[in-house]
């Protein structure tokens, strides 16, 4: 209505375009931009296409490689995961992507895990499941049963999100999403430490130090002071029934872009400017590639890249009054080193490498330890005759550490090595840096995907956020407010069946 008044008062100086009229007759937006082509950004493009239909132009901006924190490195003409590497069987969006995209599950290769405290292995997996259970009970009592029940209860509640999203419901904040799944309990779990919650549950301190802490170190590079909710997600990911994508997990991202018929623009977004106010504002994105700057105007924008201060996005926001709030917190540095060489089994108490039985080594939070985990890894393409390298052979290992390994540290872990490839990730939020959850809605028609990482960071969490933002953008565009932030959704969903 404001635009019609503007035309009338200024004697038709401004002529309405077809896209301006489209906003008032129920038509979809003409152009949508997604900034970032990791799993979150590419899944968002896919879901936006599903909801807004084939006529909308969807541009996805990415300054680096498609996949973001899903990435591989090459060793001896084989590709290995250097980023996100495992997916849980309950991750229904990721499962659905695999089926729609015609991808395959990677063949699993068995291997045993042990926990190292800097001096000796304090827990060793065997070939006998019942023996492993007996050892857990003997050392930790019923702590592992209490933990299992706690994680299962949380995952059962979290699985409600798939029903809500299948029925088209969306949430305008991470808090609203969590509250719809687990009430105030889930919100409180983002504010209380994992160790505090587990001790209250009756889990022993010894179990927390020797089992929970190593899992947090390998998954998030952080300790047991992280919030209970992200800890529960991490523990669910440490269970069985894990899988990965044949050819590399990053294939999901490139295939989603293709399925969405999105335009990939390999360019650095330098600014996002609010161009018009009103019920349907528009935004101008300026991006730069090879010293050439280009600008485009969009009806909807999804920012699918971290906006925290210690992440160099290179994006400035202009024309917003008041200014957009700064995102709380910072991202945590973790280093992934892909090393081709011979593991020094003597360091772990096995002078004869032929007797070393473990493929994965987790570590406790001991001050003298300089690495979080070390694991023999398999390539992303596994042939039928593939076998894992034995410790006496030169293998490929992934070592997680809080900082790049120094030469003396490499010599401690490896007898000798042929190559070291280091990826210095800002992979996850630093969960001790804030208790706040970033917003989902930055402005009317502009959304932030990565805020959900501050509840928990995982491929599936990004996919859930992508679906939520696509639904949220669709309902807000069409003024279907009854589909946003509804209460008592379990009852509503049951009555709709």
Automatic annotation (TrEMBL):
Gene3D superfamilies with a match to the protein in the record: FAD/NAD(P)-binding domain
Keywords, in A-Z order: FAD, Flavoprotein, Glycoprotein, Oxidoreductase, Signal
Domain Prenylcysteine lyase: 123-486
Family annotation (Pfam families): NAD_binding_8, Prenylcys_lyase
Co-factor(s): FAD
Name this polypeptide is given: Prenylcysteine oxidase-like
Organism the protein comes from: Triplophysa rosa
Signal peptide bounds: 1-17
GO molecular function: prenylcysteine oxidase activity
Similarity comment: Belongs to the prenylcysteine oxidase family.
Source superkingdom: Eukaryota
Gene Ontology BP, a term: prenylcysteine catabolic process
